[in-house]
Amino acid sequence: MARRYIFSSESVGEGHPDKVCDTISDAVLDACLSHDRKSRVACETYAKSNVVVVGGEITTTARLDYVQIVRDAVREIGYVHDDDVFHADRIFVSNIITAQSPDIAQGVDQTEAEGKGHAEQGAGDQGLMFGYACNETPELMPAPIMYAHRLGRELTRIRKTGGARWLRPDAKSQVSVIYEDGKPIGISNVVISTQHAADVKHSEIKSFCIEEVIRKVLPQSMMNGTTEFLINPTGRFVVGGPQGDTGLTGRKIIVDSYGGMGRHGGGAFSGKDPSKVDRSAAYMGRWVAKNVVAAGLAQRCEVQFAYAIGHPQPVSVHIDTFGTHTLPEEAIERAVKQVFSFKPADIIQQLDLLRPIYSKTTNYGHFGKDDPDITWERTDKAEELKQAAK
Predict the structure, then answer these.
(1) Of 145, 266, 345, 365, which is least packed with CB atoms within 10 Å of its CB?
(2) How far is CA 370 from CA 100, 254, 255, 366, 367, in A?
(3) Integer Rg of the chain from CA
(4) CB neighbourhood size of 344 (10 A)
(5) Beta-carbon-side half-sphere exposure of residue 335 (alpha carbons within 13 Å)
């Protein structure tokens, strides 16, 4: 008998308070890398009401106006309305950034140091990272998170092009997908909560979100008369963004990755330069997993690896294909280790990560995007993996 279950994933819009903070942190990172490719950046942002606090550890030769970077990022998101408490031109910005600890720097730098035991670039911290891919969508991503991201992107596109002037920046989406024997066969539920101007009626918001967003973005074949649509289910969403809730960098790690379908090591991405394996190794894991699936070696693939701070090699590498492999998992793992290098310096080189590309990653997931700058989405190693796994 076929096993049926429902799996749900959520996405959040650019104006969500946590994403506001992610956006600011990645804008700071890109500004640093634009001037100094060797910048070490760990930028954290906090936002509430009309206050933004930017902190963390940054070592760079770049001379930056952090206040202006914050205002420009908030303006691009869309907090520019007269009734916005959190407004690009009226927020108060506090800067409490310091330099990176020299104890951490000596472990990451490609130099010898007492007690380090080598002169290679080491991992910027200990920790475990995961990469995931599956064949449910053309992007080789889980269907629930990709559908949720599509809704959020469309809401933002409409808002920024003036298609619905009552739309405001804060928004969330959620899609519940029906699975049968591990395959997505339908959508049981769609949730959209979008911030709006005070003078628009709930009936207009609901009709618009269903007809102009959901039905135009999600596959019609996945929906039927039993699909439930919940639009602004509280009835009103005027107060939003950092006025309505506190924002903090790095709190949307499941939105940023695989919507809960693949596991997560716990490290956030935004605001971190690629010497931090929380970010770069997670990108590496996605590149590896996607190539395994693209090569036809498995229908689903999860890669896990772990590091010790200052150490140049991962302490473990593990492949799990959830029983969908077409060759023995031992052969796939051997091929992965042959084709890819997991040293932090090699990850940076293989994926060309010392570039100001990170603002492109911040919103609607760090994975599943079609952009030449997002190098971890390439499937350029699929054929080499196939040959190495034989």
Answers:
(1) 266
(2) 33, 20, 18, 11, 9
(3) 22
(4) 26
(5) 22
Amino acid at 221: S
Characterize the bridge pairing of strands 247-248 and 92-98. unpaired
How many Cα atoms occupy the beta-carbon half-sphere of 56 within 13 Å? 26
CA proximity to 355, closest of 376, 380, 383:
376
Question: CA-CA distance, 156 to 153, in Å (whole number)?
Answer: 5
pTM higher than 0.85, yes or no? yes
Q: Report residue 330 as tokens.
A: 């031992």
pLDDT in tens, 47-68: 999 999 999 999 999 999 999 9
Contacts of 6 (CB under 8 A, 6+ apart): 176, 177, 178, 179, 188, 189
d(CA 302, CA 332): 12
Q: Which whole-number Å values give the CA distances from 206 to 190, 200, 233, 253, in the listed order?
A: 12, 11, 10, 29
Is the Cα dihedral 244, 249, 253, 259 positive or negative? positive
189: its two tokens: 């539920």
pLDDT digits (tens, 9 = 90+) for 296-320: 999 999 999 999 888 888 999 999 9
Nearest alpha carbon to residue 56 among 10, 104, 111, 118:
104
CA distance 82 to 273: 35
Which residues contact residue 116 at a Cβ distance below 8 angstroms, ignoring those fewer than 6 apart?
106, 107, 122, 310
Taken in order 257, 292, 151, 355, the sign of the CA dihedral is: positive
Question: How far is the C-alpha of 13 from the C-alpha of 156, rounded, in Å?
Answer: 7
Please choose, from the candidates 43, 46, 41, the residue with its C-alpha nearest in 3D space to the C-alpha of residue 20: 46
Q: Which two tokens stand for residue 84?
A: 């916005």
Q: 353: alpha, beta or left, given left = phi > 0 and alpha = psi -120 to 50?
A: alpha
Which residue, among 192, 176, 299, 264, has the nearest Cα to 226 in the 3D structure?
A: 176
Say which amino acid occupies 65. D
Question: Would you say residue 106 has pLDDT above 80?
Answer: no
- Convert the pLDDT of each residue in 332-341 to its tens digit: 999 999 999 9
Give pLDDT, residue 229: 98
Query: Over the stretch 339-373, which tens digit does the pLDDT of each residue have?
Result: 999 999 999 999 999 999 999 999 999 999 999 99
CA 59 – CA 97 distance, rounded (Å): 10
Do 288 and 336 contact (CB within 8 A), yes or no?
yes
Q: What is the mean pLDDT of residues 215-220?
A: 97
Inform me whether the pLDDT recorded for 223 exceeds 50: yes
